[in-house]
Amino acid sequence: MRIINNISSNHYQEILDIANNADELYIISPFLMESFETILFKLKNKDVRHIHLATTLKENDVDLFQKANALRSFRHFCKQNEISFKIYVDNKLHGKIYVASRNGTYTSGLLTSANFTNSGLNHNHEWGIRIDDMRTLEALVSEVLNVSSKPLSEANISSIIETINNYSKTRPKTDILPLELSVDEFIESETSHLNQSIDTEKPKNKYRQEQNEKDGWISKLRKICKSNDIHIGNRNNFNYANRAKNRDTFNIDPNINRFSQDWWLLLNEPLSNKLHVFKVLANSLQKENMKFDENKPTQFFLRINCDGRPFEDKYSKTSFDKWYVKTIDY
User: Which domain holds residue 56?
Assistant: First the structure.
């Protein structure tokens, strides 16, 4: 293990060094340079034939505009130099990791504070360590891929770039924020990519199946809302519940921060293809009337009547009709 920095050493040269005898390279960084050619051109004469890229594509983030250029540049560089590639997304990614392998064996890597940008690799005061232990590198790569999306398809990469570019054309440069820009619909969640605690009592495959279904509904409901000119924002802005068979309530357990913010509530009836949409305003719920569980102090419980209006919570007797927006048939 050796400490590296951009003072007495250089991250860019270290990456070239670990790639020197490698045929595969992992680039894991939340921020990317817009032109990969400026950094990767020296790989042209090396043996690298495959690159894994993991990064972020956060909803409503101005970084998306640069990411469109970065993804286009990365794809072009790889194709031009006959390098195969995979792109993964992890929107909670903060670490920066660069790993090389040869014939399926991890050889060297960097665990660092330096993003894959010109400033990060060459100019900023960044510190990291070089790791040459195969098992440590294998564990690092495995953990990253386990919390990332499935590799983006070629079609989804194109759709992401097109969506961002089309959106940017509609927004004057002086009017960047707030954004209503998301490419989540093109990112397919890996079953192990959960960012939530796992119930160890459930079989792993059952848990993964449940999470896949949940992620699928989140994406579908957002699309339904968007197609009806209802912009519910990112995952932090809404809660949803599906009506289950033989159940007379929609069951939702929102976080207590909902009391102080505007948020969307989506009550979905999959069997009849109806989605009831509500916008609950900040400070309009009476906290003292809500049901809490001492084992889950950051959540409160809503059990809202399924059988039409009034949409009433059976615990607090709060009617959600006052926040009703519309019912969408889909």
Answer: 2-159
